[in-house]
Amino acid sequence: MQNLEWLDKAELEKLLKDLKVYNDLMKKVWKRWKDIFNNKFNWINQYSVEYYGDMDESFIITEAKEIYKKMFDTEVADTDIKLIKNEKIKWGMKIYLNDSLVDLSFLKFYNLLK
Prior knowledge:
By secondary structure, this protein is of the alpha+beta class. The chain folds into 2 domains: 8-40; 45-113, no CATH class. Helices cover 51% and strands 17% of the residues. The protein has 3 helices and 4 strands. The chain has helices at 9-42, 57-72, 106-113, and strands spanning 47-51, 81-85, 93-97, 100-103. A 4-stranded mixed sheet has the order 2-1-3-4, covered by helices on one side. 11% of the residues are buried. The model has no long low-confidence stretch (mean pLDDT 79).
């Protein structure tokens, strides 16, 4: 590795930018890894649903509970489901059980048809 004093201004700026990206990624990866690790050893399932912003929350919960029963064979209480608005989804929802995903959004079909 080079000494920092041998680098010119442009190289130092690039190095600083790369270090900021590295630091940001480590924060995100560490948080995600910590969540997965804690849930694995606490035997607690995480139920979350990402949905398009205009959808009715009671409809989302009803549909999500049916999908959890059908796809994962598990009963879920309404209060256990974490709802997350995601405007990037074309329409529909993405249902997560821990790291497993059921994608019911039009974004999936939109990308398949490209």
